[in-house]
């Protein structure tokens, strides 16, 4: 849930017009994403895939809701966000 809260905070900060106020928290969020979230995802996602494959279930298991949800959560942030004009 903390990740959702951070994303909501980033959107609210990014929607402002004062660059001097926006810069420090957005820099910190960027650092958090690169130094904490990306390495965590790089470990958790392949580990989850290996566990699903070792559970002796068919590849159809990737169609189960919780697995689809996890893969969507992993790939979703890679989709480019909306960019403001100006």
SSE blueprint and pairings:
Layout: H1 2-14, H2 19-54, H3 65-75
Q: Estimate the strand proportion.
A: under 5%
Instruction: Say what oligomer this is.
Output: single chain
CA-CA gap between termini: 32 Å
**Overall mean confidence score, pLDDT:** 74
**SSE-based structural type:** mainly alpha
Helix content bin:
55-70%
Describe the global form.
elongated
Number of strands: 0
Q: Give the number of domains.
A: 1
Largest sheet: none
What string, H for helix and E for strand, traces the elements in order? HHH
Low-confidence stretches: none
Q: Helical element count? A: 3
Radius of gyration: 17 Å
Plain-language structure description:
- It is built from 3 helices and no strands.
- With 86 residues, the chain is mostly helical.
- The protein has one domain (2-77).
- Helix 1 (2-14) packs antiparallel against helix 2 (19-54).
- The chain is elongated and about 55 Å long.
- The model has no long low-confidence stretch (mean pLDDT 74).
């Amino acid at each position: 849930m903390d990740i959702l809260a951070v994303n909501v905070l980033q959107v609210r900060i990014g929607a402002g017009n004062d660059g001097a106020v926006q810069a420090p928290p957005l820099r910190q969020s960027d650092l958090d994403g690169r130094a904490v979230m990306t390495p965590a995802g790089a470990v958790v996602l392949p580990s989850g895939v290996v566990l699903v494959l070792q559970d002796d279930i068919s590849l159809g298991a990737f169609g189960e809701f919780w697995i689809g949800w996890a893969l969507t959560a992993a790939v979703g942030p890679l989709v480019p966000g909306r960019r403001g004009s100006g």
